[in-house]
Amino acid sequence: MRTHTFIVNGERVHVKIESDVRLLWVLRDVLGINGPKYGCGINVCKACTSHINGKAFNPCSVRVGDIKGGDEITTIEGLPDTVGADLHPMQEAWLARDVAQCGYCQPGQIMAAVAKVRQAREEGHEISDADIDEIRNICRCGTYARIREAIKEGAKKM
Amino acid sequence: MEHRGSSEEPGSDNAPQDPGRNVGRRRFLGYLVAAPTLAVAAQLGESATTPRAANAVIPSPPEQQEIYDLNDLLTLAAKPTSNLIAVVINSDGTASFDMPRAESGQGITTMAAMLIAEELDLPLDKINVTLADARPELLFNQFTGASNTTIAMYEPIRTAAAIARERLLGAAAVRFGVTVDRLTVRAGVVYAPDGRATGYGELAVRAASQRTREVDVTLKDASEFSVIGTPRNRIDALDAVTGRKTFAMDRAVPDALPTMICRPPTIKGTPRAVANADDVRQMPGVTHVVQIATGIAVRAKTFGQCIDAVNALDVTWNPGTVDTESDDTVLAKLREAETDFSPLHTGEVVEGDFVFHFRNNAALEPNTAVADVRPDRAEIWAPLQAPILCKEQVAEQLGLPLDAVTVHVEQAGGAFGRRMFNDVVLEATEASRKMGRPVKLMWHRTDECRQGRTHPMCTSRIRASFSGNNVLTFEQLHTSVATDYTQGFGEIISAKVGTVPSMGMANEEGYAKPVFNATVNVPYHFGNVSHSLDEIYTYDTFPTGSVRNLVNPDVRTAQELIVDRLAARMGKDPYEFRREFIDDDRLRAVLDTVAKEGDWGREMAPKTAQAITVHKEYKGATACLVEIDCRDETVNREIRGAVTGPRVTRVVMAVDAGLAINPRGLEAQMQGGIMDGIAQALTSSLHLRDGVLLEGSWDDYFYTRHWNAPFETRVIVMPPTTGEPGGAGELGVPSAMAAVACAYARATGTVPTTFPINHDTLSFTPKPTVPPLPPSPTNGLQFAY
């Protein structure tokens, strides 16, 4: 067991735990950061989607020992701070379209959407239906239609 | 400002009634509750609606569903218990309502807040709706199911809020020394004619009652509504998008460490012995390993360490209940149980025979319960659709008096029928008792797939006959694996129809058939219409239950496929045919709406098609127009680790809920129903092989994904019709599933007979059953984007 240190939502954390514990459980069970949700534990439902150094990833499938000291983890709780506002434009878009139903998948959906918009722009285009088709996050309430609309709206203000 | 018939002091004794407003207006009974602040209660339960009249073509005699549907049973069941829900006014000017129902995304807390806001003239953001702990005195009235919440709550909540408003106005009148009719109210502030103002918060204590007594009140007329019927965002939306919304697994109960269960390799197997419990107790983070009824429970510092420990256990198992059963053996038993069609069918005959496979509730939040069991008491936190039953079951398991058990109802991350069953709570209770520690017990996703509840596999056969322009007969014979109704519906139905088989006994005759007859209808004038249900197995052979609706997604899909066949054989357009034979004006209106707004009949490319269907249930009506793309380039498109297949490209649905309290919430429910309909018609099922459900996670249980979702989904909420709200949660699924199936048939020229249509192709390698859980990958960073 060793002490792992990295940055979560702008704050440096130190966690003494076995290196092979997946980051999701370090965030949730040790640090009490509950925005990333468990839905499968094998990187297929994407409910735990968060950002590492600005890119979307799934902490259920990353060992805490593989996180480096300089890595910056951002969960939904830290997303607004990345734009210096109370809410990120994608969260605003989610509210405007009243996307959430049960809400369980929505932190992950929003984190995925933000990364997908950035990825599209890095590739030189605005987010399209084809890009949204690539998002793997499951919504069992079936809010996909509103997510599709909200991503396009949120992207305009990003 | 209008004022509604006030009852009594303070201040209201000399308040004149407004005769113009109250003539002929129903008065509703409620109770002022003796409390330090203003608390007003009302009874749950409301009157049934009158049956609809039939008309046109060859009239079919009213089916049972049309006269007395399941919601009538549920609401009437509420009558004799006459128990109360209460609205409380707080000194900070807010109102509180502790709702005896489960919120699982369907929007009932927002609905409740809107009703209170309407009658109380208080802004929505000043109303706090929480979920009530289990309240055994409510008897049947704390069961969330059958899309019944809004129907049952509409009048009681408004009644309580309206009485509260009257009391507050009365208190203000005393304070200002004026009569009530000279006061005005805006957003929770009462104004005297001279401009003096006082908020509800300042009046709350003054308006409190010293004793509990009955009062009556009139409610706002629909013409006065400013909140009801207007689209509102969910009251918990901000919490949801910021990650602050709390579910059971987020609940920080001291020392309630993560706990998971090592489960048997076949359905309902049981543990015999553990060979290496001591070794597993030495694993990192692990605190406890104990055997419970359903498996081996492991408690650890993190869920990740629970997963590792579960997989390290060496357990021998007793067989389950269906170890020799597979899809084909179950189907063979269903075929044996099928009954013969009646000899009534004359003229030209159209027939269909359809198979619907097992499917999973698959709420995204897996079963979770926190349990803190002490020698003399127990406390539970879990999302529950039947919390009273849960409390009774926990008390029985622990040998504790009912009042020593506290059951807190948590917000659910989806339910779809799954949270009617309290299995996770009983496991958590047993584990906590045996470990002597609080536990936070969570099912792994794989547990949900393989040991969770399933919608029962069934066949639905239809024979119909026609002559000239008339359909003469329409007979549907539905044969199904037994559905377990014992956890909620059972007791309600049996209490109402007078047959009282004990729980689990006579499930089929006592519960399943009454539920079938109370929910199934053929919404067309097809002459001699009949339908019946037969079941195989006993209620608990397979762990079954409803999955966002009971039988109607399957029943109606079979029907609508045959309706399209009838139309084709009779040389009619599917829309015009339905329009001609439909038996309900509200259905005809939604049908016409989707045909017009969805551009019915527009030219479609080869291997793409439209279809149009209807459904009525829960005192509502829907129509759904679907466009599907079955071209090779679409069907065969490749997405890593995904099932693609035909794509529904566009959906237009119209919904008449009688009165849509929150049209935005209703729209959301219909959209969700559409996504479920797409999944159930095309992709999502469980495969049974030798007592194992092969699906083990979201990568092989193919619920609708972004890449399956339509590019355009439009929901049209009809203006109020009946003026009474209907149910919404399950209403959208049947017409959507049916429309997808019909569109597929029209696009491909082949009527599908097995659902979902991809079931016969196993498109994945099943995960092992021993060890029971798939280990978490370690390569997540490779997929970062």
TrEMBL record, chain A:
Residues annotated as domain [2Fe-2S]-binding: 75-152
Q: Gene3D superfamilies per the record?
A: 3.10.20.30, [2Fe-2S]-binding domain
PANTHER family assigned to the protein according to its UniProt record, in alphabetical order: OXIDOREDUCTASE WITH IRON-SULFUR SUBUNIT (PTHR45331:SF2), OXIDOREDUCTASE, IRON-SULPHUR BINDING SUBUNIT-RELATED-RELATED (PTHR45331)
Full protein name: (2Fe-2S)-binding protein
Query: What's the source species for this entry?
Result: Haloechinothrix salitolerans
TrEMBL record, chain B:
Q: Which residues form the Aldehyde oxidase/xanthine dehydrogenase a/b hammerhead domain?
A: 242-321
Q: Which SUPFAM superfamilies match?
A: Molybdenum cofactor-binding domain
Renumbered to this chain, region (Disordered) spans: 1-22, 766-785
Q: Locate the compositionally biased regions of type Pro residues.
A: 768-777
Enumerate the PANTHER family for this protein. Answer: ALDEHYDE DEHYDROGENASE, BLL3820 PROTEIN
| Name the record gives this protein | Molybdopterin cofactor-binding domain-containing protein
Q: Which organism is it from?
A: Haloechinothrix salitolerans
